[in-house]
Amino acid sequence: MRGLRRWLGIAATAIVVLLAAAACASANPAVTPAPASLGALTPVPPDGEVVATGTVLDTAGVVELCLGAVAESYPPQCSGVPLEGWTWDGIEGAESSGDVTWGAYAVRGTYDGETFTSSRPPILLALYDPIRPEDPTGGQPGAGDEATLAAIQDELPDRLGDAYLGSGAQDGWLWVDVVWDDGSLQEAANAEYGADTVVIRSAITEIDG
Q1: Distances 114 to 19, 70, 162, 195 between C-alpha atoms, Å
Q2: Concatenated DSSP letters of 76-105
Q3: pLDDT tens digit string along 186-207?
């Protein structure tokens, strides 16, 4: 009988603990998980048509779309995104030296996260007049001081890897250019550095309509 009373006491205590936990859970809504770190993210590729501007570099039939820096050599050198579906037929503005052909264009097509596939004739970059994007800062200065922005700038190439194209500080902001961002890199940057410090700019952008 004494064992039964002890068992009933333990059971009653367990029920009280479970009820308290349930009440606490209902009183406190679920906490949204923090965004993943910049170095651990792989943005979801765009579904529709996209556009990107840069140098198309064809080296013996291996074609790349260079979205970042291009070495000022002759012929130029750069490391870009593999470009499929490209043809020089009927394309103006190209130069050639040896087995290298290149030119600067706005290229439209699709992007699967690794390869850009051209689907329309390109536009000479000198003739391309895109709609000016909205200023994400709203014209307001950022909160980063020179030392803070320099420290962030130093670490981003290693953290972002091949997605990183370049960066520069201006008016308290660090402007960071990447190959592609679906918004997740910006979200992670905001969570890590504050919403008034880093602006992520995607070189590949979606085309509306």
Answers
A1: 51, 20, 10, 28
A2: -B---EEEES---TT--S-EEETTEEEEEE
A3: 999 999 999 999 999 999 999 9
